[in-house]
Each structure stands twice: as structure tokens, then as C-alpha cells.
Design brief:
Elements: E1 16-20, H1 25-33, E2 38-42, H2 55-58, E3 64-67, H3 74-79, H4 81-96, E4 102-107, H5 130-142, E5 147-151, E6 154-155, H6 162-172, E7 175-179, E8 183-184, E9 187-188, H7 189-201, E10 207-210, E11 217-218, H8 219-230, E12 235-239, H9 241-244, H10 269-280
Parallel strand pairs: 1-2, 1-3, 3-4, 4-5, 5-10, 6-9, 7-12
Antiparallel strand pairs: 8-11
The structure holds NADP nicotinamide-adenine-dinucleotide phosphate.
């Protein structure tokens, strides 16, 4: 059932908003996007969500919680599923216990990747990894009247993410080996934050929403685009998931689209990459084409 959202969350007045996981990639982007509201942004050091909320948080008078805290180390979750569950499932239950309108984030890794056309909200789930299982349970822990935003392959100008890793490797190496048999929607975290604000500001119904960039590609395609746009002379050697030999299984096909009326549309991932590099600006690695007399990557 789709629940109507209380007016207190809609745009038009300065809302009091709690952001968890404020030190993470998405947590930072949400702080930027909701800067016009009265935002309390808590890092893990300020609230480890595996613990119940403090009185200060419980009595914080929040209109909305954007729950970006999560265990996101997919491979390490295989070795320590209890710790991942504690952060992702118990953590989300603790956040939901505040009884405040909630946006919780989930992932394409709730699917097994056997489909060959985009996954929509009504598709059956079947996570392959411990991480995917904790995220699926976290959706239930968020409760029936949360917005559950499933997204995919996040990247941005801060923290540990694929684009930043490639920028670093592209400076150091002539060639990198990148997986070419997993397909998804690389999503610029700034575009996701905008879409989340649209969801909340326009009072869209609660429930699961797929919010990911337009277009799709493999990790190897994304790496090539990074090198091209950043002006790095680094080749991509296309390899298989098996060759990379990571502990956690991943869906080979994880393209997300929304079937819901009024779903916010995110820009294409190529635009996301351009916007990300432009935001990084002087934070881009040295030895780019700019220094080699080639075009400006931020254009
Ligand atoms: N990154 C992706 O590609 C991707 C794709 C699909 C969905 N998502 C979902 O998007 C959301 C945001 O992910 P992200 O990319 O922003 O991840 P991230 O950069 O790893 O940020 C997660 C943040 O949560 C914090 N955290 C971890 N355990 C915590 C705990 N028990 N209590 C409080 N904070 C805790 C982390 O702090 P520490 O660094 O100190 O541990 C980190 O600051 C997550 O729900 C994730 O599952 C991410």
C-alpha cells in the first residue's frame, strides 16, 4: 500500500532533518543538497546506528531522517556477516524506531542479475552476497512507511569509490585490468541527492523506488570514460569477474529503472561523470591531459 506523506516533510518550510552516515559518500552529498534545511548530520563517531539512539537524537524534533549510514564493504561482509547485519539491519531498525518519516537506502545487489532487461520495483529479489542480504533485510527494518531508495554503483568527489580509484590508478599506471562482465548504472551521488529531494519535496508515496542514472555500462566502460574525460593516458584491459577473484558474488546485470508514476529521472551516467569531475576541479589528480596540453576535463 502506498501511504500519503505528512505535509511536515514537503518543501516550503525549513525542515529539521537528521542525516546518518554523514561522513560517507552519500551522507556528504545529502548535506549539500539539503543545505537549505535545518540539518543535523551525524557521523559514525557521533551515532553508531548499531546502538539505540541517544535521548538527544530521540528528542531531536526531526521532520525527516535521511539514513545514509551503512556497512558498504561488500567483500568484507562475506567474512563478517554479523557485523554487516548489525550496522545494516539493527542499525536501520534503530533509525526507524525514531518514528520520524524516513528515507532508507538500498542497492541493486538485492537482485541476482539473471534478468537481461532493467530491474523494476516489482521484480523478485534474490541477493547473492551477505551484503545484499543485509540490505534486503534493512528494507524490511525501515518499515512499510519509509521511502526505500534502491540505487546503484555510486560515485562522487569524496570517499572511497570507483571513479576516484580509477583517477588515482590512471595517474600511476599505463594499464589497469577492469571487470567487463558486470553491467549497471553508475550513479553520480549529487544527482541521487537531487532525486531524493524531489521524492520528498513533491510528496511521492512511500515504498520502494529505483533511483539510478540513465544509461548503463560495465565497470570497464566506466573506467575508460574516466580516463578519457580526465585526460589520463591509461588503457583498460577488460577482464572477467572470475579473473578478479573477489570474495563476494555480484550480480552480472544490475540495471535499475523505475516503473512507478512520478519517479524522478536522473541524468545519464556520462553526464554524472562530467559533473563529478567538474566538482572535483582542482582535486583532480595531476598528470592529466590538461598538463599534457590536451582538453580541460571539467568542460
Ligand atoms: N556506494 C555504492 O556504490 C552504493 C550502491 C548502492 C547502494 N548504496 C547504499 O547507499 C548508502 C550510502 O552508501 P555510501 O556509498 O555513502 O557508503 P559509504 O561512503 O561507505 O558511507 C557509509 C557511511 O556509513 C558509516 N557507517 C558504517 N557503519 C555505521 C554505523 N554502524 N553507524 C553509523 N555510521 C556507520 C560509515 O562510516 P565509517 O566510514 O566510519 O565506517 C560511512 O561514513 C548505503 O545504504 C549503501 O548501501 C551504495
Amino acid at each position: 500500500m502506498e501511504l500519503e506523506q505528512p505535509d511536515s516533510v514537503r518543501a516550503g518550510r525549513r525542515r529539521r532533518i537528521l542525516i546518518t552516515g554523514a561522513g560517507g559518500l552519500l551522507g556528504r552529498a545529502l548535506q549539500q543538497e539539503f543545505a537549505g534545511d535545518d540539518v543535523v548530520a551525524l557521523t559514525r563517531a557521533e551515532w553508531d546506528v548499531a546502538d539505540p539512539p541517544s535521548d538527544n537524537v530521540s528528542q531531536g524534533g526531526f521532520d525527516l531522517v535521511l539514513h545514509a549510514a551503512a556497512w558498504t564493504d561488500v567483500d568484507r561482509a562475506e567474512a563478517d556477516p554479523h557485523a554487516a547485519a548489525s550496522a545494516n539491519i539493527a542499525g536501520t531498525a534503530n533509525v526507524a524506531s525514531l518514528g520520524v518519516p524516513l528515507v532508507a537506502f538500498s542497492t541493486d545487489y538485492v537482485f541476482d542479475g539473471r534478468k537481461r532487461e532493467p530491474y523494476v520495483e516489482s521484480d523478485g529479489v534474490n541477493p547473492l552476497s551477505a551484503y545484499g542480504r543485509t540490505k534486503l533485510h534493512s528494507e524490511a527494518a525501515a518499515g512499510p512507511d519509509a521511502w526505500i531508495v534502491r540505487t546503484s554503483w555510486l560515485f562522487g568527489p569524496t570517499g572511497h569509490n570507483f571513479v576516484r580509484t580509477m583517477l588515482g590508478l590512471g595517474v600511476e599506471r599505463d594499464e589497469v585490468a577492469v571487470v567487463d562482465d558486470q553491467r549497471g548504472c553508475p550513479t553520480y551521488v549529487g544527482h541521487l541527492a537531487q532525486a531524493v529531494r524531489e521524492l520528498v519535496d513533491t510528496g511521492r508515496p512511500r515504498g520502494v523506488w529505483h533511483l539510478a542514472a540513465q544509461g548503463d555500462c560495465t565497470w570497464a566502460d566506466l573506467a575508460e570514460a574516466v580516463f578519457s574525460d580526465a585526460g589520463l593516458d591509461c588503457k583498460v584491459r577488460r577482464i572477467s569477474t572470475e579473473e578478479l577473484g573477489r570474495p563476494a558474488p555480484r550480480p552480472t546485470y544490475a540495471v535499475l529503472r523505475s516503473e512507478r508514476v512520478g519517479a524522478p529521472t536522473l541524468p545519464h551516467w556520462r553526464q554524472g561523470l562530467r559533473d563529478c569531475l567538474a566538482e572535483m576541479g582542482s582535486g583532480l589528480p595531476r598528470s592529466t591531459r590538461v598538463e599534457r596540453g590536451r582538453p580541460d576535463p571539467g568542460r
